[in-house]
Structures are given as C-alpha cells and as structure tokens.
Amino acid sequence: MKNRDKIRLTSLSHGAGWACKIGPSDLAQVLGKLKIPKYNSVKVGFETSDDSAVVQLNNKTTLIQTVDFFTPIVDDPYQFGQIAASNSLSDIYAMGGNPLFALNIVGFPINDLSKSILTEILQGGIDKAEEAGIPIVGGHSVDDKEPKYGMAVTGEIDKNKIWKNSGASIGDLIILTKPLGTGIIASGIKKELVSKKNIDDAVNSMSLLNKYPANILKKFQPSAVTDISGFGLLGHLKEVCENSNVTAEIKFSKLEFLNGVKSLAKSGIIPGGTKRNLEYTQDFCSFDSRLSLIDQYLLADAQTSGGLLIILNSKEANQFLESYNRDCQLIGSIKPKSNKLINII
Question: How many domains does the chain have?
C-alpha cells in the first residue's frame, strides 16, 4: 500500500481493544446453557470466571493457560502489538503463574494493508514477550477484514499458591495497580480527539507488564486477585464479591484515571462496551447520589490491559504499597455482604 502513513488501525475496528468484547450479560446467557463435562485434572476452569485455566498434569507439573486477542486500540502497529501481548500475559500473572511460551493469534486484511504493518505488530509482541522472558513459538493467522492480534500463553504455577478471584475476607483492603480509562481513551483516539501526550500515557500504562506488581505480591498472601479488562473495574470486582460472599466498598475519590479521560467522557466519548458494562452493573452496584452518570461511566469503562485488582489484609496491603514502587491506589475495602455486591461512595 503506497499511502501507508494514512492508515489508522483504529478506523478499521468496530470497537477498540476490549471494548469489542461480547458483553457480560450476553456471555453469561451463552455460557449458562453449556453442558460442561468434569475432568479431575482441571483445577480451575471457566465456571468461576477466573483469569486462566489451571490443569494438573501430574504431581510435579501444573500448567496455567490463557488466550486473549482484540482489535486495534491504538493506530501505531508496534504499540498495538506490545499492548496486545501485555494484555495476553496479564491473566497468567493475575493468578500467580509464570509464563513459559506463547503462540500468536492473528487476523489481518493481507490484501488491503501493507505487510509491513503486520510485521510491526508482530515485532511489538515479540519484544514484549522478550521482556516477559518467554519465546513466541508459532501461531495461527487468518485473512480478516478487521485486524486482530493476541496470544495464547502457557505457563506453570505452584498448585498450592494459585491466586483466585475468591477468598476475599471482611476487613481486607482493595488495591488497583493501574489507572482507569483506556476504553474512553481508545474511543477518543478513533475520533482523533486525544493529544499525543495523553496517547503516550495510555500506551505506557497498557503496555506495562503486570509481572512487576505480581512479582512483589508473591511475597505476600493475597486473599483474592484478578486483572481488570473488558468488563471493567465493577464487572471484575463483582466476580470477586460474588465468589467470596462479601460486599466491596469503593471510594470514588481514591480512583485514578488516565489523563484526558474525564474531559472526553464529559464531551460524550463513551464506548459501547462501557455503556453495556454500566447497564450490567445496575443489579449489583449502589452508586452514591453525588456521583453523576459520567462518574458511573468512568467506573464501568471497558479496560484493555488494565491493572491487577488485589485484595489483601490491612497489614500486608500497606506493606505491598510500600514495596511496589510504581503508581497504584488503595481504592476501598471488603465489608459484610449487603443488598448490593458493590457500594461506591
């Protein structure tokens, strides 16, 4: 393609990043009708909506595996590859596993776009996998009008130290390791409404591997851990509360958002995935009357390569915050179960 510089990858996507994910309500209706056979080797399946599958091969080896891919969330091919790879690796880190190797998953309009664009996407993935210390050993590709990229990642995990999205206890504190707002930023990028600096800030956040907080967290005993992706902060926290039989209290003032997100939201830049997420939360969330509809959209924003949501007892939570030298927030606490699974104040 001669005019390669004019290609904006986000313009080829119906929904940027994890905003293209099937909504939680629709997905629940589909999965709820499946007849799933039981296997003794499967220690964690998708019934509890945990981040990865865990399969015990024998007394010595327990594997952890996940797969993630999505449409472009930024226009730069290399950055898209890095973000997609970081996102794919995240589910392994979110359960306390160590990635071993990955396989690429690619959809690309090979006859419509320059092959050099795909090369850059894949190089971004390779470089991010190298940062994680693992090889990419192959993959699968299809000719697709809408670009897509991600990975299937296989790792290993100590069967006695699996972090799950259950086990949160009353009095525990809630930590989030990255700011929110990637869904809204991505929609702003599609409409060319985001400054280069704010794009760079978002790219830096999304491409940051969650191995860094996970490595620190291994020194502690978390009650529950998950990562924040397409269902947003509230959707993923709901899974923790539901599986732990507790309620979470979130302080809106303690949440951090990417630069430019609030102004975009106020100007009406709200992705469809975020709107679906907020609609889904109505049955299990209570919003303080002082929180506007815009505030609620910010809370429900569909994230791509978001941070770890960590539940720790109060002593270890403060020790983790001191040990992890990157920006993260103490956003709330775990309360006895009430009428709503999540209360935002």
Answer: 2
